Amino acid sequence: VACGGHTPARTRAMAAVMAASRTVTTLCRPSPSAHRRAAPGDRARIRGAHPGSFATGFRLSGGHRRDASLTCARRRALPFAPKRFLATRTRATDDAASGASGDGTSSDGLPPKDAQRVVLVCALAMLLASADRTIFSLASLAIASDLNLSMTTVGILQSAFLWGYGATQFVGGVAADALGGARVLLFGLLLWSVAVAAIPASAASPFPVATLVAARALFGAASGCAVPAAAAAVAAYVPRDRKSVGLSTVFAAFNCGSAFGLALAGGVIAARGWPSVFTAFGGLGVMWAVAGFALLPEAAKRRKLLRKPSTETREGTIVTKNEDRTGWLDAVLQTPRWLLGQLAALAWCHACVNFGFFQLQSWLPAYMSRDLGFTLGGSGLVAAVPWFVCAAASFFSGKVADAAIENGAERWRVRRVAMRVATLGPCVSLFSLALLNKLGFLGGSGSATALAVALVACTLATQAVAIAGFHAYLQDVAPARAGAFLGVTNTLGVFAGIAANVATGAILQKTGAFDLVFVVTALVYLSSGLVWEKNMRGKPLFPA
Q1: Which residue of 243, 273, 386, 497 has the fewest CB atoms within a 10 Å radius of its CB?
Q2: Average of per-residue pLDDT across 377-405
Q3: CA end-to-end distance (rounded Å), the chain
Q4: Within 10 A of 434 (CB to CB), how many other CB atoms are there?
Q5: Beta strand pairing status for 60-66 and 43-45?
């Protein structure tokens, strides 16, 4: 590419460039204030250039781009020798104003309608993931009656799911980041639905406890990808300014799944026996795994990510891409101390949230039946009410968070307020529940029972705000590694869930009541809030 007054030598040099590279980006109507220098091999976002402008190893001027057809009225010569240019790579989009790429995708997520389809597919998959877990929490009472199991054994069966679930969290997160979160989630749904359908056969074996433990562990292993895959799908395919709503929608469906499973399973178990509910939900999951994949946009079916995970761009800054490759051990040893502290704090907060969530998801029907006196079918219906409230709180918290950010609030401060609600709310509710139950105010009358259900609903509703807190914060500070890191923290959270289930079974076996269980869980939530308040300030974790 040349401008008026060029020499024959320069013309020959530029002809060599065009012959070797085939396409040269031509910059028309340059803005002098937009010039920035990028080192060879680096990729940079240029201050003042149109959205989507990038340069690799040469001087880029902001302005409209043209194909190298030599038709531009004003052309600029390359400011360096052809050899240097040939050692570099360029990347530019055809529609800078919209951020669209050549295949119709967006540099900041899919187009709105396609992003909504991804969220819908993931949301229904997460609904089934939660429903498949909670049907066992309700059916466990019937299974324990049929097989004459103690509460300690029931606690082991509840935690067996988490043994497999924790084993595949990190692998599921890495696979989701590498292969696409939506695809990995649907493949996991297919596998765990088959495992759910196999639970009745496991209970009918000569060694029912051992085979049930194995079936539950396999179910957990297959569903270990669910949370990190859903998070990775939102991170890759949903535009940045809609991530809170996308995450809230997915996790609201997840919480609705608990209500859906409990409301439906109680009646099915009472009418047709507990094996039928596992067969029905397993078949439903297989059908949605196939249908959901057909509904995915083409970009979500065939592409890994819409943004390069190692590059983070911000207006007004130049961010480079490090081409070096180091081993994981070297990377760990070179990790700054402040980053290790941030990761440890995030892991602790997630573990505490999971401690309470898995405990309530597994034992809420038992609390309704043992302490509040509901029947098997009734406990399922009543236990579903707090989960519906939880789903609503999860969804609307995301909308409120996005609205606050759009109105100018700092992202990390919005996340901090959300985490205050998500930790102090359950803490106060559970302490109140334990205290009122200890004083005898929650037994006997209908109003007392309604108060107990209301406190449980408040616990679940406030902890659900963590979706707009912890999960959205992770998208803010580590968008390219959200799936993998969530896999790590969720693995630690699974160990917390195992401890919660085993400890709950042991406490119930010894005391016969949930009072101490609620006190312990309230203290766990409180510790999570204190750690978050001290450490989280919105600092990016993995700079490119």
Answers
A1: 273
A2: 82
A3: 32
A4: 22
A5: unpaired
Dist CA 67 CA 70 (whole Å): 8
CA dihedral 392, 111, 120, 496 (to 10 degrees): -70
Instruction: Determine the Cα–Cα distance for residues 493 and 415; give it in Å rounded to an integer.
Output: 20
Residue 63 has φ and ψ, to the nearest 5°, of 145, -175
CB-side neighbour CA atoms (13 Å) of 373: 8
Cα 313 from Cα 91, distance rounded (Å): 14
Q: What is the pLDDT of residues 123-164, one digit of tens each?
A: 999 999 989 988 888 888 788 888 888 888 888 888 888 888
| Residue 426 CB-half CA count within 13 A | 35
Consecutive H or E run containing 34: strand 26-36
Token readout for 390 is 């939880």
> What are the phi and psi torsion angles at 374 (to 5°)?
-80, 155
DSSP-derived letter for residue 38 is: -
Which residues lie closer than 8 Å to 363 by C-beta, 6 or more apart? 137, 158, 501, 504, 514, 517
Which residues fall within 8 angstroms of residue 365, CB to CB, at 6 or more apart?
134, 137, 138, 141, 262, 379, 380, 383
At residue 491, the pLDDT reads 76
Distance CA 391, CA 250 (A): 10
Top-confidence residue, 15 or 121? 121
pLDDT in tens, 444-477: 667 788 888 899 999 999 998 988 888 888 878 8
Distance CA 362, CA 501 (A): 7
Residue 275: CB atoms within 10 Å: 19
- Which residues are CB-contacts of 347 (< 8 A; sequence separation ≥ 6)? 488, 489, 492
Look at the chain and count its residues: 544
Burial code (b: 16+ CB inside 10 Å, e: under 16) for 347-371 equals bbbbbbbbbbbbbbbbbbbbbbbbb
182, 118 contact by CB (below 8 A): yes
Residue 77 near residue 14 (C-beta atoms within 8 A): yes
| 28-42, 198-212, 407-421, 447-461: least confident range | 28-42
Structure tokens at 70: 């030599």
Q: How confident is the model at residue 442 (pLDDT cuts 50, 70, 90)?
A: confident
466-487 in b/e form (b: 16+ CB < 10 A) is bbbbbbbbbbbbbbbbbbbbbb
